[in-house]
C-alpha cells in the first residue's frame, strides 16, 4: 500500500502544481491594488512587482494536504486487516494522524505569521520569536509520541561519553533552534530573482532523494513516508511559483514563502528523525549565516538592505558596501573583520579620513567579490550551483563518510 499511497500523493501534488500555475497570474493585479508590491531594484525600469505571492502557494499546499489526509490512513487501515481477529480492522494509527495534523498546524501558523511580516514589516526579534511559538505544537507531539532525547555518540568519543548520551531538555532546545534557523536561513540568503524558490527546490529535491534511498534500504519507513507526503506537494507548488519568480521575476515571494519553506523543512526533519541530515542540506545557508554574523549581531554596521548594487548602464550587479571607522568597532568586531580581511573574504578600502569601506557580508556579495560584476541571472545560477554541489557533499558525508564516524 505504500507505493499506492505515494502515487496518490504524487497525483495530488500534480494537481496542486496546475492549480498554483493558474491562480498566481490571476491574483497579481489584486495584490498590487492592495499595495502588496515592490520595485525590482535590479532592473532598469524598476516596475512594480506583486509581492508576498508565497501566501498563495502556501494555501494551495495546505489544500492539497487536507485532501490527502484521509488517503494514507484509509488505505493502510484497510491493508492492516488482522486475519487472526476475523478480519477486523487494526487499531487506527492515532499517533501518525496527530503528527500529520500538527505538522500542518505548524506550517499553517508560519504561513500566517510570514504574511503578517510582509504586511506589517516586523522587527528581527519578532522573526526569531514567531518560529519558536509555531514550533511548540510540534515539540509537544514529539514529547508525547517519542520523548527520545538520546543522541548516539561518534566512535571517537565513545571511550569518554559511552555509546549514547541523554541530553534531556537540551534536545528540545536544539529542535526549536533548528526551526528558527530553517525559517530564517532562506530569508537571509535572498533578494535576487528566483533565489529563495530555487534553493528551496534543490533542498526539497535532495530530501526526497534521501527519503527514497532510505525507503529502499528499509530504514525508518514510516518516518520517511511522512516526509515524502509533505515534500512532494511542497516541491510541486514551489515549481509553480518558480515559473513566475525566476529571472525576470513576474512576482515576488515575500517572507511568507521563506517561512513556509523553512518550517516545512523543519517539520520533516524533526518528525522524520533526520535533523542532522537536514542540516547537511543547508550547508550554503549555514555558510551564509556564519559569513553574515558580524553584521547580523551588529559587530559591524548593517544596513537594512544588503542587496547588490545594480548598474543600469551595464545591466550588471556590483557588491553593495557598508562604511565604518575601525576604531569605533568593539573588540569582537575588530577581530572578525581582521580575520575576514586576512583570508581575503571581504574587500577592504581605507579612506584618508579614517573610514573603511567593505562589502556587505552576504554570500551573494561574496560571489561578486570573487567573480566581479555579473548579471543577476548568472548570480542566481551560481548560487543554485553551489546549493547542488553542497547537496552532493551532504550525500557523501551521509553515506560513505558517516560509516567512519558511526556504526553502519
The main pleated sheet reads as: 3 strands, antiparallel
Give me the Rg, rounded: 23 Å
Structural class: mainly alpha
User: What separation lies between the terminal Cα atoms?
Assistant: 29 Å
If strands are numbered along the chain, what order do they take across the biggest sheet?
Answer: 7-9-8
Q: Tally the beta strands.
A: 9
Q: What percentage of amino acids are in beta strands?
A: 5-15%
SSE pattern, N- to C-terminal: HEEHHHHEHEHHHHHHEEEHEEHH
Walk me through the structure:
The strands form 4 sheets. Strands 7-9-8 form a 3-stranded antiparallel beta sheet. It has a two-stranded antiparallel sheet with strand order 1-2. It is mainly alpha-helical and 408 residues long. 66% of the residues lie in helices and 7% in strands. It has helices at 2-33, 54-68, 70-79, 94-120, 124-145, 158-161, 169-188, 195-217, 221-245, 254-271, 275-281, 283-296, 331-342, 363-371, 376-405; strands spanning 37-39, 48-50, 150-152, 164-166, 309-311, 316-318, 321-325, 349-350, 355-359.
